What we know:
By secondary structure, the chain is an alpha/beta fold. The chain has twelve helices and ten strands. The radius of gyration is 21 Å and the shape is globular.
Amino acid sequence: MIIDDSDLLARLDRQFLGFVSPTSPRIMAGGHPCQGIYTTPTGARPKTAFIATHYNVDFSEHYLAPYIASRGFGFLGWNTRYRGAEDQFLLEHAVIDIGVGVRWLREQAGVETVVILGNSGGGSLMGAYQAEAIAPTLGDLLSGPGVEALNTLPAGDLYISFNAHQGRPEVLTDWMDASVVDEWDPVATDESLNPFNPDNGPPYSPEFVARYRAAQRARNQRITDWAKAELARLNAAGVPDRLFPLFRCWGDLRMMDGSIDPSERKTPMCYRGHPAVANRTPSIGRANNLKTWLSMWSLETSKCRGADQLAKITQSALVVQGLADTGVFPSDARIIFDNLGTSDKDLQLITGEHYFEDSRQVREAAANLICDWVEAKR
């Protein structure tokens, strides 16, 4: 559903921003690696502002911006160099690019309280940013200006997880079709694990669920093992990296069986419609460099996993989850809540789909919830 919020935008100021990054210059065609739109009440310089970023989705015109700004806050919808370039993603450069946005808020926009908003897939990315700002761990992957930038990331003051996946490796693995037997063949299937074979369900038995989940993790590990070996082989020949495809990643059993992790969501349903149809088409993680797989998607090697990063967060935190979400589920929100290191945290399970696109009223209620929380904490 497309929600018309043009009346809100008409009462707000919007400023386009474009900056270089400590590890990426402006490209010859003119584009800056770091870009975004800062939305504020007309003529105001808010002392409190939100910043939201995703791994690859353009968040510059984030749907929450007009709702947050109309409540008197600033909202920076921010993009790193990897907007639209998920196949090249490297976490260490992404957090440096996010730091450019946070630093601008503090040093140029006059913001005193920065709210880190981790929305959707950006939840674990913003969690990783906040964790790196608190306790840097990625410095050994860079040198020169990159190390200095990583070691001086400005931390946010408040953290909000908003319909967020646990982590990038976790969500991909949860969504993987466990019946894939050949990563190079989109058709080859182990029918005993095929979630779309009616002999297996839905409903799915506890035994099938356990075997399926184990097979999903095994699939992630098989790709990781191959990626590490292939990267070593290529590097030995002087080749830095390569692309590879990824098929069939709309296979989370919860998308077909509403009795697993029950909520108000529709089933069968995923973000691309019916999972059986979506699973046949390119989707999440559809192409990767080897280094990107190891940095973002691998359960073994990625630092985009939620638990380790969230444990470092000591600032006040809020976890919000819409119960009609077809790709993030109540258990994900509870795990995020449990993993947060702070003792000052709150969990709210509320009405709404993934981007609260159900209606304008639902979206306003979600925005009001987080604004009220921020007002109480600042």
